[in-house]
Amino acid sequence: MANTNTNINNDDLALQASDENELEQDSAKQEEKEEENVVIAKSKMALIKKLLGNIKENNDRLTQLLSGYLSAEEEASIGIGQTADENFSEGGQEQDGSKVIEGVFDGENMIGPDGKQYSVPANYASKSKLVEGDILKLTITANGTFIFKQIGPIERSRVIATVERAGEGNFIAAAGGKKWRLLTASITYYRGEPGDEVVILTPKAGESQWAAVENVVKKPFV
Description:
Elements: H1 2-67, H2 72-77, H3 80-83, E1 92-93, E2 99-105, E3 109-111, E4 117-119, H4 122-127, E5 135-140, E6 146-152, E7 156-165, E8 171-175, E9 178-182, H5 184-189, E10 197-203, E11 212-217
Antiparallel strand pairs: 1-2, 2-3, 2-5, 3-4, 5-6, 7-8, 7-10, 8-9, 10-11
């Protein structure tokens, strides 16, 4: 009977030892996998860093190649309204005899797909706070009336600037070394004067020559 118990205990010990060996082997395999994953992750990070470096280098080369075609003055003189996406409709004749044209606002006028300029009423541009680069739809009625509608506003940024006079009856907004032209109708509507603080709207991406006036803060009386 004693021998039977001894054999059972020995078997239990053998099974326990076997289980412990399997656990140790599983643990070792798990550690190997984790180390392998760390190595793979580091290699991926190194590859991503190298790719980003190549992209930056290629961008720098492209910039250098293109810089020879435009001078700084020419590049600055091209407004965002001239470089906006021209995927707008050339329009057509409606059943009531009216004509529809879509174009891009350049800060003062609408430029159609044919390159023609269409005068946008200053009061409408001012009240609608049109920003250079906005897409407009112009409906020319049968009796020749022009009706503008903003159909594709671009993303805007707010800038706090100072009103300055630029010639007779013209105004600009100045901030951070930059200057934007302002519609006289906008300044007149808010009764702005040189020295007043003005909140303007500009395109979020790219440079613009014009800005829309959102509000004017009158300078304090001295």
